[in-house]
Write a structure and sequence with these properties.
6-stranded parallel sheet, 2 domains, single chain, Rossmann fold, about 400 residues, alpha/beta, 14 helices
């Protein structure tokens, strides 16, 4: 099978979407399928070998000034010429912005089935454009419906995300997880060398992911400060990078715990796995999570997770089983959950084992098989309409 992927994120960007697309493409290639990715050209390269460079068509783009990780792409004619030569059996878009619109146009011109995966809603990002108003949310939802109603099939990595989609009658979203590299993310038999290399002593927390406004890492820092103030000394490792780093460093300094917060930047490969293993508890306070690969990656390494009741996090963090859940913004409860885990090694171990079991249900082979089933389903349902169905309301 020949599959063309479209994504609003380059594989070289720090993003859960990039990691999911990369893992899916690599697994499909291993199984003998041909893949090609149409995504933004990105100069700030991640520090790893780009094994998929030969099957990536980079699109010219420009970053939004105050959100440079989010790109506006163009180059439709060159994309279509390359896509015609590739002759895809299906087109699979992982974004609803400019590359997603390109995917719709490609579907209409080439008469190839289009699959759309919803990794988030347009309304989740309105506050970044100072448009978080009822009327703007209404139009964002209408756009989302317009976009996904062009698709022959729609998927989402979580039930919570799928339940928000307003689709035409008969178009029921498939809930298919993002693929998790369970071979790489694993518990290490001996964590002491890693902890020694990082000069860690005592309890250690982990914050893991892109440092952007919607991730609300400042709340993790505030919860850490409360844990320390209540008499449980600990260190917070912040793994990731982004525009908010300087602001977060200032926030830690303002709270008087900058010496207890380590900003390690973006890590990859075995170094990332080792650093995750060095922690005792992972904490996530994000406001936009359609699944959270970083949570699953931490769980695959045997860490219990303390998170907030947002999006798909309660689906992944089963309260009292794989970790604990607090309400968004409730840093007092977050701190209490963290202290309980830090003071109870047996509970950490039990929750970590349950988390590993959960994480392994998202292995790339089973996820890829589910997507292949959807691809085969839409290919069997040809011809494809080039016109969207009416809005679902």
């Amino acid at each position: 099978m020949r599959i063309a992927f479209f994504s609003d994120f380059s594989l070289r960007q720090l993003s859960g979407v990039s990691d999911a697309v990369r893992m899916l493409m690599e697994t499909l290639e291993e199984q003998g399928h041909a893949v090609r990715l149409y995504a933004p050209r990105y100069a700030a390269a991640r520090d790893f070998d780009d094994t998929l460079r030969e099957v990536t068509f980079p699109l010219p783009n420009i970053g939004i000034p105050w959100m440079p990780d989010y790109r506006i792409c163009w180059g439709k004619h060159a994309m279509l010429e390359n896509l015609r030569a590739f002759q895809p059996d299906v087109i699979h878009t992982h974004g609803f912005a400019t590359t997603g619109v390109m995917a719709i146009r490609a579907m209409q011109i080439l008469n190839v089935p289009l699959i759309g995966t919803s990794h988030g809603s347009p309304s989740d990002y309105l506050n970044f454009f100072w448009l978080d108003y009822r009327w703007a949310r209404f139009f964002a939802r209408r756009y989302e419906s317009w976009f996904y109603n062009h698709c022959a099939a729609v998927t989402s990595p979580s039930q919570s995300m799928a339940s928000t989609l307003r689709l035409r009658p008969g178009l029921v979203p498939h809930v298919i997880s993002n693929p998790l590299n369970t071979g790489a993310f694993r518990p290490l038999p001996d964590k002491s060398p890693v902890r020694k290399a990082l000069d860690l002593e005592g309890p250690t927390l982990l914050s893991f992911g892109r440092l952007s406004r919607e991730k609300r890492v400042e709340e993790t820092i505030e919860a850490t400060a409360k844990v320390i103030a209540r008499g449980t000394p600990c260190t917070l490792l912040v793994v990731g990078d982004g525009l908010e780093r300087a602001s977060l460093e200032s926030h830690a300094a303002h709270l008087g715990i900058l010496d207890r917060v380590r900003f390690l930047g973006a890590l990859h490969g075995e170094r990332l796995v080792e650093t995750v293993n060095a922690a005792d508890v992972m904490v996530i306070t994000s406001r936009v999570e359609t699944q959270s690969l970083t949570t699953l990656q931490s769980m695959a390494c045997g860490l219990p997770v303390v998170g907030v009741r947002i999006g798909a996090l309660p689906e992944v963090i089963r309260d009292g089983e794989t970790g604990f859940i607090a309400e968004p913004g409730d840093t007092d409860t977050l701190a209490s959950h963290i202290i309980r885990l830090l003071k109870d090694p047996a509970l950490r171990k039990t929750m970590g084992e349950h988390g590993r079991t959960e994480a392994h249900s998202h292995a790339p082979q089973s996820v890829t098989a589910a997507f292949l089933s959807v691809y085969e389903e839409v290919m069997a349902d040809k011809p494809v309409s080039s016109h969207p169905h009416p809005y679902a309301v």
